[in-house]
Design goal:
370 residues; mainly alpha; Farnesyl Diphosphate Synthase; two-stranded antiparallel ribbon; globular
């Protein structure tokens, strides 16, 4: 009689999940590139740029959380449906590609992962080929269309993954909600910047919708739904995911001001130049105003959204944020969110090894330089 599989042990898939996701994405994008070639060679060239962006970096965080949501709800990595599950969860990276391409365009970011952003790269193509019209508008149009293409292909990859009909039906709700939430978060981010809303409340509302929902909370929900998790486990995953997702974004906000460009792939202080109304900035302004340091508040306000912000002024802002206690306050908030998330995870009936791995990911995501 064959031995019973030990689902509590980590398998090869568990140990090299990013590599497996990479292979699924490569295979999918190669097929779509062949289809694009039949439409038009110029379109195929544009698809190459999108494929290069998708495959050119990233930690595959979202499929990782989704995988452990599936495993934590009893998903069997040795089961016949596993290849389809892996393919479906890999589609999250195309949602991420859409969000990043559009986010870079809205923020007018020049660099992503150490390379020109999509809208900048296509603007440079326009100049190099001496095309008609304005290079910036051409780059804008290309980025909008390629971001939309990534979103459309994400749907294709999920719904064509080969999941059993009942599993696909369960997956539809978190997928639908996630797509709406990430776009709502993007809009709220733009609106908050346009309004100049400096409140702590706004600084927390945006990452809740823009990052937490589609980075951790809904990927966990998606994986658990595919596995057939009950409502109680889904709610526990969502509590854990919301807290870790916000903490993840707060860590990212700190890296956006204090991070090493060699690690972040973006110029130092770019979040300040782009005018991001993060919790770090909101707390800095709040602490400056309540302590009567109006000159310090003025320095911060002048820096946020200044595209010509120099490295010297970035360093002044860094020192102010430390001196005002904003950095320490954000670090405390991250610690509180991580501890709340870990408590929610510990109280839930999450199968091993997912319970242990999710706890590890919670720490890595909030203390990392990912």
């Amino acid at each position: 009689m064959p031995p019973t599989p030990d689902h509590g042990s980590r398998t090869g898939l568990d140990l090299d999940l990013p590599g497996h996701v990479e292979r699924e994405l490569t295979s999918f994008l190669q097929r779509r590139r062949a289809e694009a070639e039949l439409i038009d060679t110029s379109f195929a060239d544009a698809v190459d740029a999108l494929s290069g962006f998708v495959l050119g970096g990233g930690k595959r965080i979202r499929p990782t959380f989704a995988w452990w949501g599936w495993r934590g709800a009893g998903g069997d990595p040795d089961g016949p449906e596993t290849p389809s599950v892996l393919r479906a969860l890999s589609a999250l990276e195309l949602i991420q590609a859409c969000a990043l391409v559009h986010d870079d365009l809205m923020d007018d970011s020049a660099m992503r992962r150490g390379a020109p952003t999509i809208h900048v790269a296509f603007g440079e193509r326009h100049r190099a080929e001496a095309l008609r019209g304005e290079p910036e508008r051409f780059g804008l149009a290309a980025a909008v269309l390629l971001g939309d293409l990534a979103l459309a292909w994400a749907d294709d990859m999920l719904f064509g993954a080969g999941l059993p009909p009942e599993a696909l039906r369960r997956a539809a709700e978190p997928w639908r909600l996630m797509r709406t939430e990430v776009l709502a978060g993007q809009y709220l981010d733009v609106l908050t910047q346009a309004r100049g809303d400096e409140s702590v409340e706004a600084a927390l509302r945006v990452p809740r919708m823009k990052t937490a929902a589609y980075t951790v909370e809904r990927p966990l929900h998606l994986g658990a739904a595919i596995a057939g998790a009950d409502e109680g486990l889904v709610e526990a995953f969502r509590r854990f995911g919301a807290d870790i997702g916000i903490a993840f974004q707060l860590r990212d906000d700190l890296l956006g001001v204090f991070g090493d460009p060699e690690v972040t792939g973006k110029p130092a202080g770019d979040d300040l130049r782009e005018g991001k109304r993060t919790l770090l900035v909101a707390l800095g302004l709040e602490h400056a105003e309540t302590s009567g340091r109006h000159d310090a508040a003025g320095v911060l306000r002048a820096a946020v959204g200044d595209p010509e912000l120099t490295e010297e002024r970035v360093e002044v802002v860094r020192e102010l944020l430390v001196d005002l206690g904003a950095v320490a306050a954000v670090e405390r908030r991250i610690d509180e969110l991580r501890e709340a998330a870990l408590a929610a995870l510990a109280a839930a009936p999450v199968a091993e090894p997912a319970a242990t791995r999710l706890a590890e990911l919670a720490v890595a995501a909030t203390r990392r330089a990912w």
